[in-house]
């Protein structure tokens, strides 16, 4: 039984209620319509890389069921749909354009607009064409220039209808996890490559913002996954130092170049052995800090941090980052994530809705040049059970979503400029290295029949949107 009620709140006029997905996680058609391998297709073939040996070939077949999926979004009353473009569908083998791939997104956009749903487009949600990985991927500066060509092609095709453009989703994962810890594609474990990937993705972002701005785009942004790195004992210098390191690698290495045009001094120092300074060219930071129209914030959980190796470790950080952040390649063997006894989701991520409020408020206080914020992902995986009548009474997920929405309201009341909220995810889907084991959807997908069933959380979210619109 769901317990938590929405707190009465007057939401700002025009506040956007949406849901999010990503191409690789839902589309399927892995090698149809001219699409070639992305790094995730290739990674899925590495034995042991993905739980259950799962792949992305069919995923939830959104590529073929797109009109019905858009109808489902309309039935939920979504204002906006955040989706990503598969680069390997649009430019499958490096540079040549695949019109059939682009056409899929053109049809999707038309379908959304026809249903009165705002398309919120992300250019890069982790699925680099494998053809570019074979040229050293994001460790190669040239990839940033390929990204701008790809972004320009997509803008030329969709810019007449899509108003909101996001360059990257969670560069932390696609650089540091993909190239450093190896838990994400392309599965490399090379500190130098990881640090180069961070910088080259920043550069790609800045170049694309400038290119799309010149082409006429008016709403340009990026989505970061940010955390509150909370020292277990704020009076213990070892714990405080661990929190500083995590804050540097998970937050400030992204926020400061983007919003202030400089890498933090402590980050440059920590990453000296991995050659960060060497990959920065003289004009890069002025390109990277091109003004933004919005910042997307993805948030699932906080991080309580210790610097003591014996602190009871848990694996709560996103995508296995607990292991990666604590691994020697970043020069710290001793970042651990002790438990504070909070409830946890099926990802073993702790539930602490107040962390979202804290983060949104803190960003406004810490960054003078902060653009408007959108919560572009928030949600939870639980092991759903299907009732005899086929319904899914996912009260924990419902409570998670409602309690986080309540905290967004509190953040706005405290002065944070938050203009939208997107629940992750519309559909159960391919959860990266966890395969199909973890379900985040507000709509259940039966992975055998691919049938969609709105869960209680989806109904509740729809009722919330209706109530806000009616107020
Ligand atoms: C985020 C990703 C998204 C999804 C959620 C659970 O890190 O952006 O694709 O996997 O986590």
UniProtKB/TrEMBL annotation:
What is the active site of this protein? 170 (proton donor), 377 (nucleophile)
**GO cellular component term, pick one:** cytosol
Its UniProt entry gives the catalysed reaction(s) as:
Hydrolysis of terminal, non-reducing beta-D-glucosyl residues with release of beta-D-glucose
Q: What class of enzyme is it?
A: hydrolase
User: Ribosomal protein: present as a keyword of the record?
Assistant: no
Q: Which GO terms describe its biological process?
A: cellulose catabolic process
Give GO MF terms, alphabetically. beta-glucosidase activity
Which EC number(s) does the record attach to this protein? 3.2.1.21
Residues engaged in binding substrate:
25, 125, 169, 300, 424, 431-432
Keywords of this protein's UniProt record, alphabetized? Carbohydrate metabolism, Cellulose degradation, Glycosidase, Hydrolase, Polysaccharide degradation
What the entry lists under Gene3D superfamilies is as follows: Glycosidases (3.20.20.80)
Q: What family is it from?
A: Belongs to the glycosyl hydrolase 1 family.
Concerning PANTHER family, the annotation shows: GLYCOSYL HYDROLASE (PTHR10353), LP05116P (PTHR10353:SF36)
Q: What is this protein called?
A: Beta-glucosidase
Q: Which species?
A: Cryobacterium ruanii
Organism classification: Bacteria, Bacillati, Actinomycetota, Actinomycetes, Micrococcales
């Amino acid at each position: 039984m769901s317990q938590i009620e929405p707190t009465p709140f007057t939401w700002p006029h025009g506040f956007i209620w949406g849901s999010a997905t990503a191409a690789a996680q839902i589309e399927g058609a892995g090698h149809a319509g001219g699409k070639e391998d992305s790094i995730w297709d290739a990674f899925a073939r590495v034995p042991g890389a993905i739980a259950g040996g799962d792949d992305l070939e069919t995923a939830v077949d959104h590529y073929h069921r797109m009109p019905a999926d858009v109808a489902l979004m309309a039935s939920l009353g979504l204002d906006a749909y955040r989706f990503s473009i598969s680069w390997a569908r649009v430019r499958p083998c490096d540079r040549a354009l695949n019109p059939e791939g682009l056409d899929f997104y053109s049809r999707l956009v038309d379908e959304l607009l026809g249903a009165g749903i705002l398309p919120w487009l992300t250019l890069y949600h982790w699925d680099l064409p494998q053809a570019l990985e074979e040229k050293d991927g994001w460790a190669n500066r040239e990839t940033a220039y390929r990204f701008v060509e790809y972004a320009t092609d997509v803008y030329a095709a969709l810019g007449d209808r899509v108003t909101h453009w996001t360059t990257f989703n969670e560069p932390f994962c696609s650089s540091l996890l993909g190239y450093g810890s190896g838990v994400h594609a392309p599965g490399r474990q090379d500190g130098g490559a990881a640090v180069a990937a961070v910088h080259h993705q920043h550069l790609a972002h800045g170049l694309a913002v400038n290119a799309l701005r010149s082409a006429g785009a008016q709403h340009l942004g990026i989505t970061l996954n940010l955390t509150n790195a909370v020292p277990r004992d704020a009076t213990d210098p070892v714990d405080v130092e661990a929190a500083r390191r995590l804050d540097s690698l998970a937050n400030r290495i992204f926020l400061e170049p983007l919003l202030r045009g400089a890498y933090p001094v402590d980050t440059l120092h920590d990453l000296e052995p991995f050659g960060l300074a060497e990959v920065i060219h003289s004009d890069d930071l002025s390109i990277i800090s091109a003004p933004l129209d919005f910042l997307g914030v993805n948030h699932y959980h906080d991080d309580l941090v210790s610097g003591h190796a014996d602190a009871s470790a848990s694996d709560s950080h996103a995508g296995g980052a607990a292991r990666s952040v604590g691994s020697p390649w970043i020069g710290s063997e001793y970042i651990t994530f002790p438990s504070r006894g909070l409830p946890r989701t099926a990802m073993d991520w702790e539930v602490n809705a107040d962390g979202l409020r804290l983060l949104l408020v803190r960003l406004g206080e810490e960054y003078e040049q902060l653009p408007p914020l959108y919560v572009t992902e928030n949600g939870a995986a639980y092991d759903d059970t299907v009732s005899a009548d086929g319904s899914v009474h996912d009260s924990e997920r419902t409570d998670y979503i409602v309690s986080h929405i309540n905290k967004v309201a509190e953040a706005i009341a405290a002065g944070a400029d938050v203009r939208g909220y997107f629940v992750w995810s519309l559909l159960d889907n391919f959860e990266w290295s966890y395969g199909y084991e973890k379900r985040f959807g507000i709509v259940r997908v039966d992975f055998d029949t691919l049938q969609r069933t709105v869960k209680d959380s989806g109904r509740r979210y729809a009722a919330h949107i209706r109530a806000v619109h009616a107020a």
